[in-house]
Please model this.
Amino acid sequence: MPRREPPPAALPPRRCVLLEGTAAAGRAAASMLLAEFAAPRCLWLGAEPPAGFDRGPAAAVLGQEFDALVLDAHAGFDPDACGQAAGTLRAGGVLLLLTPPLADWPRFADPEHQRIAVHPLSAAEVSGRFLGRLARLLAADSRVERRHADAPGAALRPPAPRPAASPALCATADQASAVAALVRTARGRARRPLVLAADRGRGKSAALGLAAAVLLASGKTRIVVSGPRLDATQAVFTHAAAALPAAQATRGRLELDGRVLEFIAPDALAEATQPADFVMVDEAAALPLALLERLLARWPRLAFASTVHGYEGSGRGFALRFRRTLDARTPEWRALTLETPVRWAAGDPLEALLARLLLLDAEPVDAALIAEAQPAALAIQRLDRADLAADDALLDEVFGLLVLAHYRTTPLDLRHLLDGPNLAVWVARHDGHVVAVALAAREGGFSPQLAAAVQAGQRRPRGHLLPQSLAYHLARPEATCLRAERIVRIAVHPAARGRGIGRALLAHIAAAAQADGVDLFGSSFAADPPLLAFWRGAGLLPVRAGFTRETASGAQAVLVLAALSAAGTASCAAARARFCQSLPYQLSDPLRELDPALALALLCDPEQPTPALEAARRAEIEAYVAGQRDYGSSVAVLWPACAQALASQAATRLDAAQAQLLLRKVLARDDWAELVRRCALPGRATAEQALRSAVGRLFAST
Model:
């Protein structure tokens, strides 16, 4: 097991120096203040830096260490880049933040506004609420050293050099405990995964590498590491190589006497057949939940590591959602949290400051305070976003709930929440506390000329997902001329779910939109059957399923729609009819890899009566079920009959295995060998008999 480093001397705090003034004065002052710093040890984000300084993008420098970081907000304040880059600043380092005078910053023409503006508004029409909140917090925080760019004071002193830590040794007791836990998981009983959680800078990736080295040195022959991308796992290989100096290292691979540590991309790993002694998934919160579930099912010994509070999204939401899967499939899973920082001191003032500025530490209200919340007693309202930006407690509850429910929420989402021009923030409150939150975007209202250009694929006006999808994918160009309200996100507190609170909030938003003359009400989301059932329960029906899996979620996006006006009713009905007509055909080609449970949830309308069969077709189907006709001779009758029946109440008679058989063989048109493999059946004879039984069940009482 790797030894621990000797306890270090007390680490100096990191500092934040704010330089207010013009862009030119701020940049000149920053260069002067850093005159004694070695240029390669300084990172400059924003405008073109002075000669010798490293320049972002921030994501490209992850894993490196710097003594100084310049964030030039005159070139635009990107909250995600701020969070990324600040993690590279070591103990004793300084963050120089270049801004306009704080009193003027909310009205500053920030170049980042271009990313937030939506058609037909320009960047100049984006609000400054987010920057105003930053200015207010920076002005009031004693941890911030405010200086004027025209009189910046004496040059800063670089932090004292520190002895280089050995990457082969554990830096903290936390890290040593994590290495030991990882080794025990790899050597222990199967189906007992470890979930390793840590804030940034706690050395979790290093722990993975050190554990891999221990396992290879002790005789394990193949360790696999995975993550969102190879570069994100580089620290794993760096620390493993340091602990195994005799190993041969190449990009994404480490070999020692025939024993291997290698990187495999997550999607390939889920399908891999070559055995592995242990699988480690780094930055698991950045992977789709569906993909993590496939990895959990495929590999008997594995560990997941995730960041709890980070610029890339919150591991808290990941842990909440993934915990349900772990409890159901591997109830003996274990969790471990790393608390002690490696790169800076515990209680570092800059870490605390950035957590407050970017709301990396936002939390929803304590469950006990909303335990009695019921839909009928809720106070539902649209928030004034200027008031929201000024109310720290309320913003914490709103953003904390979004972070918990959507684990891809990042600081940039906070800026969109406060400044998005077509966005509204709705909340449901119990005793003043936020129980549910929804973000709604007002879309559409295009001219006929723009609508035609959208349908032809010539224009894609920013910020109008719902009408553009209806026009381009469903050939409903008139829908872009209608006004639409799209639910961008909705979250209900975990302690208050299952009571109808989400549906009550949606009904209130829809009623307000209808009163405002809106025609359509919809949403687009990464679908699974329970989520689709929620939206159906709220009166919104699917009208489109994306043909490819979303990168972020690993699932197909589904568009759901409801009508709020007569014009909306006609457009919605036409879109729904086209979807119902097209979906059975799509399941045999662009959607043939769709999860069967989701395919059935999209197809089946439990309120649709079972279609009647004419006598001749019924006789053919009965002959097939009885074994008097083979599948090839019956498919011309089975395909249309099954497509209609699966879209009706009849589908509710099927169990999951029967539904999968019908969807895979009849609609997706798998050959028998593929059907046997997908449905885990012993052979073709069993598959044929099971299919006959499923068809018989589907048409049992027609």
Notes: DSSP finds 25 helices and 21 strands in the chain. The mean pLDDT is 91. The domain at 15-148 is CATH 3.40.50.11040 (Rossmann fold). The CA atoms of residues 13 and 488 lie 40 Å apart.
